Amino acid sequence: MKTSIATVSIAGDLAEKFAAISAAGFDGVEIFENDFLAFDGSPGDVGRMAGDTGLTITLFQPFRDFEGLPEPQRNRAFDRAERKFDVMQELGTDLMLVCSSVSPVSLGGIDRAAMDFHELGERAARRGLRVGYEALAWGRHVNDHRDAWEIVRRTDHPNVGLVLDSFHTLARRIELGSIRSIPADKIFIVQLADAPLIEMDLLYWSRHFRNMPGEGDLPVRQFMQAVAATGYDGYLSLEIFNDQFRGGSAKAISVDGRRSLVWLMDQVRREEPALDMAVPPMPDRVGVAGVEFIEFAADRQDAGQLGSLLRMLGFVEAGRHVSKEVTLYRQGEINIVINTERQGFAHSSFVVHGTSAYAMGLKVEDAAATVERAEALGAEMFHQRVGPGELSIPAIRGVGGGLIYFLDARTDLAKVWDMEFTPVTSASSGNGVGLTRIDHVGQTMAQEEMPSWLLFYVSIFRTTKTPMVDIVDPAGLVRSQVIEGLDKRFRLTLNGAESHRTLAGHFIAETFGSGVQHLALATDDIFATAAKLQVNGFEPLQISMNYYDDVEARFGLDPEVADRLRSANILYDRDDNGEFFQLYAPTFGEGFIIEFVERRGAYAGYGAPNAPFRIAAQKRQMRPKGMPKL
Description:
- One of its GO terms (biological process) is 3,4-dihydroxybenzoate biosynthetic process.
- Residues 290-409, 437-586 form the VOC domain.
- The mean pLDDT is 94.
- The chain folds into three domains: 2-271, TIM Barrel; 288-423, 2,3-Dihydroxybiphenyl 1,2-Dioxygenase, domain 1 (Roll); 435-621, 2,3-Dihydroxybiphenyl 1,2-Dioxygenase, domain 1.
- It has 630 residues and is an alpha/beta fold.
- The strands form three sheets. The protein has a nine-stranded mixed β-sheet. Strands 18, 19, 20, 21, 22, 23, 24, 25 and 26 form a nine-stranded mixed β-sheet that branches.
- 48% of the residues are buried.
């Protein structure tokens, strides 16, 4: 498997791009002409820079408006091509991409285009170069890879081949079976990109909204299955035009790109096991049975406040770590850990972010296989000193640099609470409120980070993604997308903030980065839980009474039900399959959210219609802007 990426896909100058692309593990790089033209050096300098970072220049692109031109434009096009051939030879690459013409003076006709390409192939052959023809989705006469292939076929020249681009084919919904009949040796390179499904002009969609395979909604896997069926074993190259990527971290985007290609080909290999493909070996995506624990980093003062809050919420102190300043709180299947160590990763996290949920533990089918797959997909491994008698729990770095630990039932990892914690005798007592398990965890990040972490989760774990929704904060929009396990036992919401004035944006700004902001805890009876919480001294987030008048009318609720919701400050939603109830605690610290939920029937959502009203309530009870922390 040979991987490449176009320089247009990431930010920076050529030196920065080459360094990031090489560090991510790519084999090659496409030189986008504008990047070369902006470079203050010779083509030979570019070639040497690429070689010094271990990269092969796979392609020079694009050469525009070539085929089917009348004179004198035709002659000028060949003169331009000769100049580009000069550049290519100095760069040290042998392949030039020619995209289908959009020139208003271009003439149609497959035979006319084939004649032009035959002459271009002759000129390229004299220099030991090749030409690849690509059908732009908005080409004037050629906008379909089937027509581009017919031109290449009639050209009948060994130095002229086809460039297949997933975006151009999939954007036009072109039948994919036609690819399978193309000879592999006539496919000179394959370019890959995904995109969200948006109804808009093709050119604008392509230039601004492409993303990595797996981050969008196009059937890129099916496209690549058709390509693989030809026997093609050349470069797989990313060509991503995306405004956020061009303003983001070249290193992070490059890592995402490499991950997307490896995951794509892993899927293709599993769908087409009879095909011989050089794909890095790795275990299949791993199922997640739920969240085993959430771990907070805190100092002793905040740990005391957090512990008091948890006890009010019905948790009991169930254990203390045998060698570390770590306390376990438990209710039902929910485990919350508070770490007040003065050294190690938790302490470093506290120093940077303050009291925060810096780690979570996932219950997986096979912890070792999970880490092996994550590492193959470019995840950053995490290792920490282990004391005598302690378990070495496999972990990787996740959102905001936090940790994701993995536990399974097939090893001693299942015994972590017995082996590493001393039980507290009062654990059987306490005022439980009926909380059973973690329904979902919400992670907040800058909006431009969302595609990256979406790809991270769906490529490693056996999960699906739901459509993105807009959450209306009184100060702006927050984009939200959900990652779910196939059996719904694992649910994760990714929330992308555009403005620091939103509740999500405030959390990022005040805690110095992305991380877990929201913990939703399940109950089987929300009204009983609310009553028990009240006995414990709990005061819920106060929801506007106007909300309840609207809910009663909108859903046609029985007035008695509406009154129960109103008196307990419980939010309500309903879909075709069931009902959803939500009760919020006041925010903790700089916007950390604890929510109690009950699902009835097969309700599949997360209460998104209620978000504007609970966010308004949460912002009313937060520290006013400009007021110092106590």
